[in-house]
Design goal:
The protein is 81% helix and 0% strand. The protein has helices spanning 2-14, 19-31, 35-48, 54-67, 71-78, 83-88, 90-102, 106-120, 126-138, 142-159, 165-178, 181-208. The relative contact order is 0.05. Mean pLDDT is 87; it is low at 201-209.
Length: 209
């Protein structure tokens, strides 16, 4: 990230009026935990181009205010959305849930998770279901987490014969919480086998190139 940030600063100096470059630089600053620097860059974008990529820029502000523990501004952002609107945008939805968890508003977080669950439980969208699976784990709904993680693993393997071991680790963690240690061990062993095969594949790719 540091090298990318240096290159981004060079790009800004070459084209200081590019909102795309400045937005990308703000994102990199956030990845480097330079939240105030990231915020200054978003403010600059907003001041010179108030409507530019407004919803994504607003989302960027929300994440930074959350990281900086500026709860008042976080609440201002959330007040612009109904629960239905929050749920329709997966990224915003789960950032708001994490915010509620961070501020100990557990009942609000659970309410949104429940509504999100209704909209995606019959979906085949792996990203939406993955978010739901992490939500189940966050709220210790381990039976649901284990079952959904198993489904996600199967979906991932259909899409790509490699990978998917992350879902097995989620399943294993949930099963351990449920006291099903034998099945948890099976999931862990399966995950290790996949990791080993993936490492062999990547080593083979490096040898080719």
């Amino acid at each position: 990230y540091k090298e990318a940030q240096e290159e981004m600063e060079k790009a800004i100096s070459l084209d200081p009026h590019s909102n795309i470059i400045l937005s990308a630089s703000s994102h990199l600053s956030r990845q480097l935990y330079k939240y105030n620097d990231a915020l200054k860059k978003l403010i600059k974008i907003r001041e010179r181009s108030p409507q530019w990529n407004k919803s994504r820029t607003d989302f960027g502000f929300f994440i930074l205010h959350k990281n900086l523990h500026d709860w008042e501004k976080c609440e201002q952002f959330i007040s612009n959305y109904s629960n239905k609107e929050l749920i329709e945008d997966r990224m915003i939805c789960w950032q708001v849930i994490y915010y509620y968890l961070l501020t100990n508003n557990i009942s609000k977080a659970k309410k949104i998770v429940k509504e999100y669950e209704k909209t995606v439980e019959n979906s085949n969208d792996i990203k939406k279901l993955s978010s739901l699976c992490y939500g189940y784990r966050a709220f210790q709904q381990n039976e649901k987490a284990a079952k959904l993680a198993e489904k996600l693993f199967a979906m991932q393997r259909k899409m790509d014969c490699r990978g998917g071991w992350g879902y097995l680790t989620i399943q294993a963690a949930a099963l351990i919480e449920l006291g099903n240690f034998d099945k948890a061990q099976q999931a862990i062993e399966k995950a290790y086998k996949i990791i080993d095969k993936d490492n062999e594949f990547m080593e083979g790719e490096r040898n080719v190139f």
